[in-house]
Each structure stands twice: as structure tokens, then as C-alpha cells.
């Protein structure tokens, strides 16, 4: 008897489920999959997706929600997110082609990017970048506070180093512009911490970036891309 494709797909799936039931749970977990599937040694980044972000303009992502961005994957974390603030480093970023990140403050490129950031729509920004742990997804991320409004708020995140913080969005009205920017408050909700061994591994990598790095990531969007 001739069977269609859908029939054989159903049989195949049922047999796999039966096999998995006989041999126990799936051998490899999502953590192993992430480790072998990622394209490089970059951590995902945490980003406030404002109305200026391309994904929001296209209606593909909620406005003023936080996203964990990993390559082309945008994970919606909602209007607020709790994080463990682990460490920080200076960063200058040019989103022009190619996207360049500079971490050495004595590097001429760092100075150039900082100076160009004062020009509107230059694609340049600078500020502190934080290493954080997100308990809800159990992953390490970076959070770059490179726009003028973000930099003004960044001391509040630095004050919570080695502590928990809640990130929200605040409306800013300059009279000429109205936009949203991150705001930081202490987090009072207990959450599970990562293993110290994992923390130290990430801190070591975070503290020793290349002086200059060509980033293979989509441009950060929103308030950070516009000099204010």
C-alpha cells in the first residue's frame, strides 16, 4: 500500500519517541547544543529594543522590551530583566562596515571612535560594557551602555557590581527628542547563581579581550546608535 510523506513522517517520529523512552532521556542537553552550534566565542548581548531598532520597526519584536541577541536570534525577555552584575570593561564601538570594537583606551582607534561619537548618526559609541548572568535563561551576556543616556545611567549599574540588578526602560523627553533608555534599580528577587568556576572562566575571557576586534554581529540598534 502506498503511503504518503506525512504518514511516514508520523511513523518515524513515533519510533524515535519510543526509542527515547526505552533508552531514557535525550543524551545531550540544550547546553551542549549551544556550545557546539555557536559560530564563535562571543557571548550573547543584552539589548533594550527601542522603536529605532530595525526589528521593532518591522513589527518583529515588541518595542521597549529587552532582548538577548545571539547572532540573528532575538530572545524576548520582557519589559524588565534581572541580572547578576559581574564585571565591566571600557569599550568603543564603530557600527560602520566592518563593525569594530576596541577595548584598549590607549589605542588611537578608541580615541577616534569616542571623538566621532559626538557627530550625529556617526555609527560610533563608547561606554562601559558589563558582564552579566541572566538567571531565567542561565546564561552569561554582555550589556553595552554606549549612548549618552546609557552612560549617564551606567554608574547605577556599576554600583551593583557583584550584586543583582533589575533593568527597566525609562522615557526621556529632551523637548526635541523622545526616546527610551535603560534604567537600573537593585533587584530584591532571590535567584540561583552560576557555579563559581563558570564565573571565573567568563571573567578571565572578559578581562582579556583583543585590543581591537572585528565583530561579526548585527549592529546594535535603538538609542545607542544616535548621539544625543
> Which whole number gives the mean pLDDT?
85
The end-to-end distance, rounded to whole angstroms, is 70 Å
Rg over CA atoms: 21 Å
The assigned structural class equals alpha+beta
Rough outline: globular
The main pleated sheet reads as: 10 strands, mixed
| SS elements, strand count | 10
Annotation field: number of helices: 6
Residues in β-strands, percent = 25-35%
Describe this structure in words.
The chain is of the alpha+beta class. The protein has one domain (10-225). The protein contains six helices and ten strands; from the N terminus they run ααβαββββαββαββαβ. The chain has helices at 5-23, 30-37, 54-57, 108-116, 148-158, 196-207, and strands at 45-49, 65-70, 73-78, 81-94, 100-102, 124-134, 139-144, 164-173, 178-186, 212-214. Strands 1, 2, 3, 4, 5, 6, 7, 8, 9 and 10 form a ten-stranded mixed β-sheet that branches. Strand 8 and strand 9 form a beta hairpin. The longest helix has 19 residues, at 5-23. The relative contact order is 0.19. Mean pLDDT is 85; it is low at 222-228.
SSE map:
Layout: H1 5-23, H2 30-37, E1 45-49, H3 54-57, E2 65-70, E3 73-78, E4 81-94, E5 100-102, H4 108-116, E6 124-134, E7 139-144, H5 148-158, E8 164-173, E9 178-186, H6 196-207, E10 212-214
Parallel strand pairs: 1-7
Antiparallel strand pairs: 1-2, 2-3, 4-5, 4-6, 4-8, 5-10, 6-7, 8-9
Amino acid at each position: 500500500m502506498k503511503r504518503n510523506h506525512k504518514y511516514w513522517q508520523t511513523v518515524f517520529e513515533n519510533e524515535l519517541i519510543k526509542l527515547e523512552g526505552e533508552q531514557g532521556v535525550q543524551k545531550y542537553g540544550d547546553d551542549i547544543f549551544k556550545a557546539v552550534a555557536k559560530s564563535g566565542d562571543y557571548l550573547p548581548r543584552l539589548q533594550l529594543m527601542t522603536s529605532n531598532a530595525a526589528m521593532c520597526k518591522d513589527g518583529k519584536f515588541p518595542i521597549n522590551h529587552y532582548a538577548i541577541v545571539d547572532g540573528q536570534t532575538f530572545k524576548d525577555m520582557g519589559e524588565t530583566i534581572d541580572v547578576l552584575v559581574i564585571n565591566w570593561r571600557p569599550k568603543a564601538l564603530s557600527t560602520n562596515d566592518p563593525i569594530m570594537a576596541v577595548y584598549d583606551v590607549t589605542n588611537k582607534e578608541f580615541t577616534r571612535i569616542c571623538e566621532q561619537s559626538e557627530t550625529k548618526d556617526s555609527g560610533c559609541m563608547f561606554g562601559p560594557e558589563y558582564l552579566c548572568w541572566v538567571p531565567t535563561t542561565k546564561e552569561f551576556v554582555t550589556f553595552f551602555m554606549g549612548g549618552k543616556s546609557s552612560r549617564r545611567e551606567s554608574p547605577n549599574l556599576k554600583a551593583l557590581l557583584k550584586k543583582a540588578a533589575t533593568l527597566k526602560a525609562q522615557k526621556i523627553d529632551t523637548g526635541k527628542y523622545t526616546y527610551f533608555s535603560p534604567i537600573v534599580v537593585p533587584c530584591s528577587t532571590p535567584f540561583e547563581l552560576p557555579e563559581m568556576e563558570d564565573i571565573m572562566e567568563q571573567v578571565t575571557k572578559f578581562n582579556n579581550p583583543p585590543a581591537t576586534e572585528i565583530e561579526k554581529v548585527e549592529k546594535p540598534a535603538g538609542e545607542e546608535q544616535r548621539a544625543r
